[in-house]
Amino acid sequence: MDAIDISSESDSDNEFLNRLLLIRKSSEKKIWKSSYLSKRKTHGEFKLTSEFSDEKFKNYFRMTRNDFKEVHAMIATDLEDQGYGGHERISTEEKLAVFLRFVASGNSYRSIGYSYRMGERTISNIITKVSSANWRNMQPIYLPEPTLDILEKNAVDSQNIWQMPNTVGAIDGKHVTIKKPINSGSSFFNYKQHHSIVLLAVVGPNYKFVFIDVGSKGRFPDGNIFDNCILKRKMINRQLHLPEPKGLPGREDIVVPYVIVGDAAFPLMENLMRPFPQRQVIDNYRNKVFNYRLSRARQTVECAFGLLSSRFRIFLRPFEMKVETVDKIVMASCVLHNYLRTKSITRNMDEDLNLENENLPNFQQLLPLPRMRGRVSKSAFEIRDQFTDYFNSVQGRVTWQNHSVQRGAY
């Protein structure tokens, strides 16, 4: 700052006093800011979490203290650094706490920065770094590439829970609303008049993600989103590690391939079943039964998205950061969801399913994909007809399906 020449006759007394006042305010502001941030270890929100009861800790971070310690142990090495400038190093535990509170609350970087006594840039760097560490270290364990063993287990669970044989999962996609990226034009502008990226996921009967694809631009037509997905390419190239086709329970003469079930936003394929269109179910009871049985299984993927947005409320508001960071946060949230579902199943407690019943804001920012039309192979039609025959047979029907269809649940 330039020195002030007090002996100058060109400055009036008022101008001189005003300049002194500005210097004083600037100095006070710097002192206040430094003092505020320097009290992070004693007055920051992370310090206060140590006083929480176990119940409040779980509500605050969306996981128990033991779960927090276990997640931290898996990613701590990737979060270590030597600090910078004259600032005191932020511990790896505090970095994880910042990330978990950010995704659990949906608060902005600025709000998290105020409560944890950190700068916005610091919060941004922490969120990006922890997201990457979570995915890099936890994905191979809790959201691995689908293998034959995983898909066979899902098929057994599907038969026991959904009464849907030869089924390895349910697929759905959601538009994740984002703030319009700079210089993006209409690249992310979707059919609901929002800017978004797409989260495409296959979910098993246990509400865990089996496969996710994150980052397709919201402007892409519904068909393009799935067409450009690696999952479809693996289906077409027979690289999905699906079990060999086999007969349906009680009707071994009906041999069908293993399939994934989806709604009208997806094409009918040999390994992907979608419901009959409305015009084919109005006066066709058999088709209504098929649609009901498929819908009953497919609801699990909707519930999984509901659990994800209930637990991590960042999904209840538009993401306001770079698209690359959004992708990382979504991926990290999905793998954390699987981790917590695994813990819930291990404890033989489905307490996290109660999250669905919480009162959520009216704004639901996970938007469904639109319906699609496209060419379908003859064999795909035949496979759907075989499932339809089975669900209407003595061996394949369930006792409550007639009542459900009669009240319009299809």
What does this structure look like?
Residues 54-132 form the DUF8040 domain. It holds the Pfam family DUF8040. Its cofactor is a divalent metal cation. Strand 2 and strand 3 form a beta hairpin. This protein is α/β, with parallel strands linked by helices and 410 residues long. The longest helix has 27 residues, at 285-311. The protein folds into 2 domains: 41-140, no CATH class; 148-406, no CATH class. Helix content is 49%, strand content 11%. It starts with 12 loop residues before the first helix and ends with a helix. It has helices at 13-38, 40-43, 45-49, 54-61, 65-79, 92-105, 109-116, 120-142, 148-162, 222-227, 230-236, 285-311, 323-346, 378-391, 401-406; strands spanning 167-177, 196-203, 209-217, 246-248, 251-256, 259-261, 272-273, 366-368.
